[in-house]
Amino acid sequence: MPPETAVSKAHSALDPSRWKALIFIALAQLMVVLDATIVNIAMPSAQSDLGISDGNRQWIITAYALAFGGLLLFGGRISDLWGRRRAFIIGLIGFALASALGGAAQNEAMLYASRALQGVFGALLAPAALSLLTVLFTDAKERAKAFGVFGAIAGAGAAVGLLLGGALTDYLDWRWTFFVNIPFAAVAALGAVLVIREPNTTRDGSSLDIPGVVLGSLGLVALVYGFARAEHEDWTEVGTVAMFVSAVVLLALFVIVEARVKSPLLPLRVLTDRNRGGSYAALGLASIAMFGVFLFVTYYLQIVRDYSPVRTGIAFLPMVAGMIIGSTQIGARLVTRVAPRNLMVPGFLTAALGMLVLTRMNLDSSYTSVLMPSMVLLGLGLGTAFMPAMSLATENVRPSDAGVASAMVNVSQQVGGAIGTALLNTIAASATTAYFTDHIAGATDEQTLTFESMVHGYTAAVWWGFFILLGSAVISAVLINRKGGGHAQVAAGGEGAEADTVVPVMAH
């Protein structure tokens, strides 16, 4: 069959409602990403209202992180086995109900339970959303545009969460940071029922790998909890070390099992492709750095500069704008013409330059000369790099692996976020303490010294973020080897598919 005939046949087979479907998929993704930061802003109010101790407040974040991070691979495989559209709708309904429980919480147990349930249904929803995008958009140019929108939301949603969380907490009540998810979920679920049509040929009919589910989920829970514990305890504390050792053992056993079973939870072919593996690693490292930026710039603005939550959220808007431009106007427009490596490397280097500007932060830094330029550079760089990285991480997989390949994108970002929060917080705290101890003898104003020490700690952590982003650029340069341009024809099923089933997908 001539290539142009194959292309036209593939185009005619595409879902005519796919662009409408993108709206509801993007809305669901925005809700999940918002939730990562919107609750952080509400934490002090919720803690005070429900009488939660300082020692226990971490569970507002940790309960969600453990359930979400631990169950992502399971959620991705469930969507492959039972259908992505069904998993997407169930995830939305469950997330909305869990959010309603959180907003109505009368004590800390109810709040922790709601956060864990949000994590459970988020782990089903997030991979389903990304894998729906993967199977609905197979044409190169259309896929680039769709992933441009998705990448912009994935990057900018956390910053939008700071703004929305601040506004809801300041002007309404902390409970609305939970209730706000309900209309998001309702609209997205209704749209999914009416609009989204999943291709029938993409579902996996194999059985569920129970040993893989148990080992993979427990291994990821141990890893995420190890980093969460290290942030609040100590890296050498017995419980923390035990968690990391358990994670290594469980994940090693997981890999052994996955290499032997007939229908693995995570087929190792998904990871061993150098382009996908490189994309996961680059995204994971960048997530470490990005979480650090949100964390320390938020602390700096609210504690040192006394910004309100709303003003803090507004201060992040240049980063949001940069991510949207980088993802939709740079990444999406160029990804079909140049190799993804040639977008990812400059993107991560631009973000690293933004991090370098941020190291100039001091006690009375000008927002317009230091913070705003750094945020614009970070947004542009990460938006430009994330778009091709997320697309490449889910491209050319077998349709039956789309869910679990999408789950791995979320795993890399979730584990990266857990590492970033724990590692960079520890670095900042150590640098803050050392600076304060070294300068206390000659200090005339202890309050000023306290703030100076904090800013010194933040910039020490930001320097690490700079080198981590350089690491993402190096990984992209070394591991990503697809060439750019063109609309080559490859099998619809990706690896190992029959050659007579032809659709256009991105070729690099």
Can you give me a brief rundown of this structure?
The protein is mostly helical and 508 residues long.
Describe the overall structure.
The protein is mainly α and 508 residues long. It has two domains: 15-199 and 265-504, MFS general substrate transporter like domains (Growth Hormone, Chain: A); 209-264. The chain contains 18 helices and two strands. The chain has a two-stranded antiparallel sheet with strand order 1-2. The protein is globular.
Uncertain spans: 1-12, 484-508
Number of helices: 18
Query: How many β-strands, per DSSP?
Result: 2
In what order do the strands lie side by side in the largest sheet? 1-2
Shape: globular
Helical percent range?
over 70%
Report the order of strands and helices: HHHHHHHHHHHHHHHHHHEE
Main attributes of the structure:
508 residues, 2 domains, single chain, 2 strands, Growth Hormone, Chain: A, mainly alpha, globular, two-stranded antiparallel ribbon
